[in-house]
Amino acid sequence: KAGVTQTPRYLIKTRGQQVTLSCSPISGHRSVSWYQQTPGQGLQFLFEYFSETQRNKGNFPGRFSGRQFSNSRSEMNVSTLELGDSALYLCASSNNGRTEAFFGQGTRLTVV
Amino acid sequence: GQQVMQIPQYQHVQEGEDFTTYCNSSTTLSNIQWYKQRPGGHPVFLIQLVKSGEVKKQKRLTFQFGEAKKNSSLHITATQTTDVGTYFCADGRTGGGADGLTFGKGTHLIIQP
């Protein structure tokens, strides 16, 4: 089985721009979660999607949004980028969101 | 929201020495998961503990879940250079619309040969 695939791997954006990140989960997994990882805050939960519905949401501003498609692929969008949004964004898939999470390699976003 | 505290933040050991990281929660956990992240890599699932007092072993790694299900530990016996990385505990999701995984800040294991 192929693992979780995230694209792109690296991204440089300017303050004020918006960005879309993509995640393809393991085949058969219907739950996709997104996390932000920074040296200061560690791994923080952004949101979880299950069968195209956002099931849970972390404590992030509305500039962070996401969606899931019928094939379970997911995208997350960050609008009006700020310098503090620079981070590694990790996507994880699981069977039902209640068991072990399989992480992708992440997208390293740098905002300048 | 629920918080999971993890200590120590950094641990330097000589190769061959043992290593332990601890995870504590102020509230009862339904289950706890452990992940390892190598430098430059992504978190990789190690194990999930569910039962009070549970102990599980994976070769040189021993995982424990406290009797009150408020704490957990990961112990590595005779560390090797391949053990280098950051070890995270995570509050497993309780189901029924609970939050996503809540991670501890992690323990960075540095091994000196």
Q: How do the helices and strands line up, and which of them pair or pack?
A:
The complex is a heterodimer of chains A (112) and B (113).
Chain A: E1 5-7, E2 10-13, E3 19-24, E4 31-38, E5 42-50, E6 53-57, E7 64-68, E8 74-78, E9 87-94, E10 102-103, E11 107-111
Parallel strand pairs in A: 2-11
Antiparallel strand pairs in A: 1-3, 3-8, 4-5, 4-9, 5-6, 7-8, 9-10, 9-11
Chain B: E1 4-7, E2 10-14, E3 19-25, E4 32-37, E5 44-49, E6 55-58, E7 61-65, E8 71-76, E9 85-91, E10 102-103, E11 107-112
Parallel strand pairs in B: 2-11
Antiparallel strand pairs in B: 1-3, 3-8, 4-5, 4-9, 6-7, 7-8, 9-10, 9-11
Structure characterization notes:
The complex is a heterodimer of chains A (112) and B (113). Chain A has 112 residues and is mostly beta strands. Chain A is 0% helix and 54% strand. Chain A is built from no helices and eleven strands. In chain A, strands 2, 4, 5, 6, 9, 10 and 11 form a seven-stranded mixed sheet that branches. In chain A, strand 5 and strand 6 (53-57) form a beta hairpin. In chain A, 38% of the residues are buried. Chain B has 113 residues and is mostly beta strands. Chain B contains no helices and eleven strands. The A-B interface holds A 33, 35, 42-48, 55-56, 58-59, 90, 92, 97-106 and B 1, 33, 41-45, 48, 88, 90, 92-93, 95, 97-106.
